[in-house]
Amino acid sequence: MNTLKYPFVRTNVPSVGKAKISAGFTLIELIVVITILGILVGLAAPSLSEFVHSNQLITATNDLIADLNLARSEAIKQSAAAGVCKTSDGVSCSTAVSDTWRGGWLVFADSDNSGGWSAGDLVLRAHEALATSFTIPAAAGDSVVYNRFGAIASGSGTYSLCISKIHQKRDINLSATGRLNLSSTSC
Question: 3-state DSSP call for residue 152?
C-alpha cells in the first residue's frame, strides 16, 4: 500500500482573518514619552544650573582659602613673609584699581624681605582667572601678607566672592592674627 503524501499547502497561504502581532511602539506612544521627557528636563534644568553655579562658588572660595593657608604656613615654615595677591597676568601681582581678584591670584614667598610682592619673589602657586559669572566686591586690599609668625602684616579684612545669577555670596574674614572665618550670605 503506497500512499502518496501531498505537501501541506495551507502554510503557504497568507492569513486574512488574523491580525499580525508586532513587538514595537506606535508613533503615538513615542510622541507621548518624548513629550513627558521634555517636560521633566525642562523642570530639572534650572535647578541643575543653580547647582553648578553653587559648586563653582564653593570651589573658588575653597581655592582662595587653601591658598591663604598655604601662604600662612609658608611664612611660618620659612620664618619669612609670604602672601597672596591679585593678578591680571598670572605672573606678577597687580595693584591697579581696574584689576580685581576675579582675574586670579598668586601665592608668593617674600624672598627679598620687602614686606610684599616684588619682582624677585618666588611664586608658589598661581590661580587662574575666575569665570565671568563671578563678581568680587571691593576687597580689603590688593594683597594679604603674613609675617614670619603667621599673623597678617597687611590685608586683613573681608574678601567676598559672589555669583549674582544665584544671589549667593561667601565672605572670607581675615583677622589680624591670621585666622580666617567663612560666612555665607546673599548678594
Answer: strand
